[in-house]
């Protein structure tokens, strides 16, 4: 249904520009940071894979619709019973991201900048079962308690794309204004910031 809507929208908005419509396959990496003043966290590296459609919108502007599947990784500092010192617990957060962006073309097919919103849909974070009872540093809660995540987020996205017509490098930054830790018992706050480095193959 999603891609049927994409196709229909492009078909209507770009009558006479059919040769400019391109389907993109995205592969890449991300760095995810959970910014929080309540707990100690560290960034981690994950992966991206996605599908998008790019086409002329108006003059030097393109419109891009896309869906991307990602796995975000980040670490939370904990204490493990009977063991001295801090212990980093790795959290994995699989999600689906839907984006709509406007792209301004400085050089046709070679250099552009993008700006637009992204909606993220995800479940809870995942950790190793052996780490579930670790106590998160500075709290009385366990590492498992912090796997409860907000399931929907809205992010503004800004990026730059450079390359040739059929293969381009894309770098984007996105910041989540919504609190990802609002399901954790207590008044904990955490906002995500994400850097994506992708290769897009256009057909």
Number of strands: 9
Report how far apart the termini are: 21 Å
Instruction: List the uncertain runs.
Output: 1-19
- The ordered string of helix (H) and strand (E) elements is HEEEEEEEEE
Strand order of the largest sheet: 1-2-3-4-5-7-8-9
The biggest sheet, with number of strands, parallel, antiparallel or mixed sense and barrel status, is: 8 strands, antiparallel, barrel
Number of helical stretches of at least 4 residues: 1
Average pLDDT rating? 91
SS class: mainly beta
Tell me, briefly, the overall form: elongated
Strand-residue fraction? over 45%
- The percentage helix is under 10%
CA gyration radius, whole angstroms = 20 Å
Structural features, described:
6% of the residues lie in helices and 60% in strands. It is built from 1 helix and 9 strands; from the N terminus they run αβββββββββ. Strands 1-2-3-4-5-7-8-9 form an 8-stranded antiparallel beta barrel. A hairpin with a 2-residue loop joins strand 2 and strand 3 (61-79). The radius of gyration is 20 Å and the shape is elongated. Mean pLDDT is 91; it is low at 1-19.
């Amino acid at each position: 249904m999603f891609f049927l809507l994409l196709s229909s929208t492009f078909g209507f908005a770009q009558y006479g520009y059919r040769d400019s419509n391109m389907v993109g396959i995205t592969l890449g990496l991300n760095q995810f940071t959970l910014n929080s003043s309540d707990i100690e966290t560290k960034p981690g590296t994950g992966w991206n894979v996605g599908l998008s459609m790019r086409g002329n919108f108006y003059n030097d502007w393109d419109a891009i619709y896309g869906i991307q599947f990602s796995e975000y990784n980040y670490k939370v500092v904990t204490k493990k019973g009977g063991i001295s010192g801090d212990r980093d617990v790795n959290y994995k957060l699989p999600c689906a991201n839907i984006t709509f962006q406007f792209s301004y073309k400085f050089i046709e097919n070679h250099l552009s900048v993008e700006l637009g919103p992204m909606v993220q849909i995800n479940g809870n974070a995942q950790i190793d079962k052996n780490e579930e009872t670790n106590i998160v540093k500075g709290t009385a809660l366990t590492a498992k308690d912090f796997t409860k995540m907000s399931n929907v987020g809205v992010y503004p996205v800004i990026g730059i794309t450079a390359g040739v017509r059929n293969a381009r490098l894309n770098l984007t930054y996105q910041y989540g204004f919504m609190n990802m830790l609002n399901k954790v018992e207590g008044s904990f706050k955490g906002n995500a910031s994400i850097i994506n480095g992708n290769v897009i193959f256009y057909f």
